[in-house]
């Protein structure tokens, strides 16, 4: 597929292994577990292990939906293209819009932690220096954007290096924690942690609200579907999800073995560092901070990739201005769309740093991201189930992964959204639902532009 200028993305540039690594890095494993453990533990205690297991298995149903649709309709827009094909262009537009809004908010909310982690390693006395933190965050954002701009191969190489370094450090800390604390665990290991009977309706829902955000990001493999062979992209998504489920469940068990409830609460911003500090003396204990920083940077890259590919596809289809479908002739990247998210990121980054009201809104937006995730992923699950519904009569085995599991995944996302909405503050609801509602403006502009030009979105 090509843009108006005849340029196309780099077809077949990523292998199945690279696609898998992209999917793993997209969830920002170290960063996500470090900052969400306190929240999920406060909500459901040791049942956090079971919550991550069962939410991951339900998310696997959505993975089957994305992979199945990617095999028959590979498109950089992923959810936008598929939902639009099945349910119509308006629903497709909002599926893509929900992803882009979530990507912008997460990208900005992650740059500041990357900056503070950098200072913690090189100049811990400057952590309260707001201009310096903001400046370093801007440097990280610009550097990662430049890597993505230069081509998917450069982005892939960077992601592989970052993810391997992150994994080596985390697995070293996990192994040391098991060795040191297995004989005297803070929480004795129990099958109750994963027993379905231990969950109430409320505890399952509360855990799922956090787990959805923690698992989000693996679907970047599908936004790179035009730059990966369809079979490799689908395989990458599957193995990324399997690895993530095992990793999150095992890591949560290690955290419970190593830290007491009081320690988890006291170190809610980075439980991995709390474990490392109990085992290793400084400066070795700071290696986990490096892993968290690398994880955050990797997530920035994948969010830029998801946003830019979605905007590229939506512009190519005519629902956004065609200028954003421009592809660099040499690098084969959607350079205009990539610069758009960089620009949004820089504006919001400096605004949040110097305007307390904006900073508070962005903090609330982290929770609001969950609504946008549930919206576009749930729609994709339902779209897949409807598209392949004929298999229920002709091939029941294939129907399990292409109809039944995707439908269950869609129901799961709808359930999480319905449960969480009443618990959110007015600010979170305004950002979460309002962010989606803002999409009516570009949707109307696109339709007006197409009507004047006598064309309709593809």
Automatic annotation (TrEMBL):
One GO term in the molecular function aspect is: transmembrane transporter activity
The way it spans or sits in the membrane comes to: Multi-pass membrane protein
Q: Which keywords label this protein?
A: Cell membrane, Membrane, Transmembrane, Transmembrane helix
Q: Which domain of life is it from?
A: Bacteria
Q: Where in the cell is it found?
A: Cell membrane
Instruction: List where the protein spans the membrane.
Output: 21-44, 50-69, 90-112, 132-149, 161-181, 193-216, 237-259, 279-300, 335-355, 361-386, 398-421, 427-445
Q: Which GO terms describe its cellular component?
A: plasma membrane
Spell out the Gene3D superfamilies in the cross-references: Amino acid/polyamine transporter I
Give the Pfam families listed for this entry: AA_permease_2
PANTHER family found in the cross-reference section: AMINO ACID TRANSPORTER-RELATED, MEMBRANE PROTEIN
- What protein is this chain from? Amino acid permease
Write down the species. Answer: Novosphingobium fuchskuhlense
């Amino acid at each position: 597929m090509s843009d108006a200028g005849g340029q196309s993305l780099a077809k077949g540039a990523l292998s199945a292994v690279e696609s898998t690594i992209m999917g793993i890095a997209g969830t920002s494993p170290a960063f996500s577990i470090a900052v969400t453990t306190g929240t999920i533990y406060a909500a459901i205690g040791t049942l956090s292990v079971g919550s991550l297991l069962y939410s991951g298995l339900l998310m696997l149903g959505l993975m089957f939906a994305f992979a199945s649709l990617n095999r028959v309709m590979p498109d950089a827009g992923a959810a936008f293209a598929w939902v639009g094909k099945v349910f119509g262009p308006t629903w497709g537009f909002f599926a893509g819009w929900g992803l882009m809004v979530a990507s912008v908010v997460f990208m900005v909310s992650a740059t500041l932690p990357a900056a503070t982690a950098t200072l913690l390693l090189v100049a811990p006395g400057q952590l309260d220096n707001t201009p310096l933190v903001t400046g370093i965050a801007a440097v990280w954002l610009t550097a990662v954007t430049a890597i993505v701009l230069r081509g998917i191969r450069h982005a892939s190489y960077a992601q592989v290096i970052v993810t391997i370094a992150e994994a080596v450090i985390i697995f070293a800390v996990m192994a040391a924690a098991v060795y040191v604390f297995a004989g005297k665990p803070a929480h004795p290991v129990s099958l109750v942690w994963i027993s379905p009977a231990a969950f109430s309706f409320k505890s399952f829902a509360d855990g799922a609200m956090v787990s959805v955000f923690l698992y989000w990001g693996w679907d970047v493999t599908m936004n790179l579907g035009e730059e990966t062979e369809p079979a490799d992209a689908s395989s990458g998504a599957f193995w990324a999800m399997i690895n993530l489920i095992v990793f999150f469940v095992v890591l949560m068990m290690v955290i419970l073995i190593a830290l007491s409830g009081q320690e988890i609460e006291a170190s809610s911003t980075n439980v991995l560092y709390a474990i490392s500090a109990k085992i290793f003396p400084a400066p070795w204990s700071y290696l986990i901070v490096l892993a968290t920083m690398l994880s955050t940077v990797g997530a920035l890259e994948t969010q830029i990739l998801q946003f830019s590919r979605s905007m590229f596809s939506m512009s190519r289809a005519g629902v956004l201005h065609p200028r954003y479908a421009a592809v660099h002739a040499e690098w084969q990247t959607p350079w205009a769309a990539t610069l758009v998210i960089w620009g949004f990121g820089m504006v919001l980054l400096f605004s949040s740093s110097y305007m307390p009201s904006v900073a508070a809104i962005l903090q609330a937006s982290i929770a609001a991201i969950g609504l946008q995730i549930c919206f576009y992923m749930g729609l994709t699950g339902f779209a897949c189930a409807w598209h392949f519904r004929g298999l229920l009569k002709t091939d029941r085995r294939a129907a399990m992964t292409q109809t039944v599991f995707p439908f269950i995944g869609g129901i799961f996302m709808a359930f999480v959204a319905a449960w969480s909405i009443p618990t959110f503050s007015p600010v979170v609801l305004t950002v979460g639902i309002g962010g989606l509602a803002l999409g009516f403006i570009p949707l109307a502009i696109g339709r007006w532009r197409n009507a004047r030009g006598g064309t309709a979105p593809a």
